[in-house]
Amino acid sequence: MPLYLAFTLTLLTITCVQAGRVLFLLFALKLGADPFAVGILAGTSSALPLLLSWQVGRLADRFGSRPLLIVGAVGGALGMLAPYYMPGLPALYLAAVTNGLLFACCGVSLQNLVGLLSSPTDRAKNFSNFSLMASAANFLGPLIAGFSIDLSGYGVACAYLVLLVLVPIVMLLIWGNLLPGGSHNDSPAGSVRDMLTGSGLWRVMVTSSLVVTGVVLFQFYIPIYGHSLGLSASVIGVVLAIFPGAAFVVRMFLSRMVSLLGEEKLLAYAFFIGAAGLILVPFSKGAVTLGLISFLFGIGMGCGQPITIMMTFSGSEKGRSGEALGLRITANHLARMIVPVVFGMIGSAFGIFPVFLANAVMLASGGLLAGSGAIGRKK
User: Fold this and answer.
1) To pair with 242 at 20 to 30 A between CA atoms, which of 59, 68, 236, 311?
2) Burial group, residue 34, by CB count within 10 angstroms (0-12, 13-18, 19+)
3) Tens digits of per-residue pLDDT, 49-58?
């Protein structure tokens, strides 16, 4: 029961986060926001996950996940009410910030819950199921946002999301006592530096950031490249949608592949497949080939995120798994903020091909690192 509760909470909360991201951006465009304002709005949703994920993980280790999940859900619900009552950009910025709070509290806590509720023998299967819930949420969120807007308008769509996020709150109030509590220690033993270097977790963090870098640049530059080919917005959207679809498919078999190949060897293959997809993009001249490349890339990178979650949990010190997972999310969001800027400058100066080439080289380097067995190696 507790594990299924965690999966259900994952589906509901991440669906709400993804729906909110799409809804707030479209609402801002409806209000006449310029591209810079829209970009700032998109960035604010990553601010709190970047700043708070590590602390959320520490608190989850000490006090358990239930209070953090409730705080995140209540904060997200209150923020989403703002655009309903006060339509305007300031209210949307507030809603985006609290949507980030929802993700910061729930993302770390739920990942940690799945690990705590799993034995070493079924951990790969359970993290695979967790990733399937996340993939389903990534699909459902934008769908719910779009249909809600078309059905009732932007303001009422925000109210619908409030109703959606109330469901996890009720579930936590009724069944939250089934979830494991924390250690209630005053502070974790050892510094963050000791935790990262002593267990070799810093390698996992770097590897996870490489996965995020590949995904972010693919999602950022495929629309640019597709537009340069003269593809319509709907076709570009279909190409992008193929990527999470492929990720969902491969995650259905993830636990079997981990059992067969092991985490690091499978991660190495994932990196190499992702690198192959990126290097092929500049040679594609049509929607069909871009769609096939998107599927190939999704097969590779769809494995990357859940594997690095497993490795982070497995490599963390006892009683500090939440802290380790929080650091992972912090590193990922730092990459999300920095990478588009850095590669945007490269693209402006040298064109798109060097961007895909450099990113493919980075992913291939991650594959070599994973294939060498160095990621999980302890100091």
Assistant:
1) 311
2) exposed
3) 888 888 888 8
Largest CA distance in the chain: 59
Neighbours of 95 (CB within 10 A): 27
Q: Which of 125, 9, 5, 52 is nearest to 323 (CA)?
A: 52
240: how many CB neighbours lie within 10 A of its CB? 17
Q: What pTM does this model have?
A: 0.76
Is residue 282 within 8 A of residue 356, CB to CB? The reply is yes
CATH superfamily of this structure's domain 2-176:
MFS general substrate transporter like domains (1.20.1250.20)
User: What is d(CA 85, CA 24) in angstroms, rounded to the nearest whole number?
Assistant: 14
From 3.40.50.150, 1.10.260.40, 1.20.1250.20, 3.40.190.10, which CATH number describes the 193-371 domain?
1.20.1250.20
- What is the C-alpha separation between 320 and 334, in angstroms, rounded? 21
Termini Cα distance of the chain:
38
Residue 374 has pLDDT above 80, yes or no: no
Write out pLDDT tens, residues 278-287: 889 888 888 8
Alpha carbon distance 160, 164 (integer Å): 6
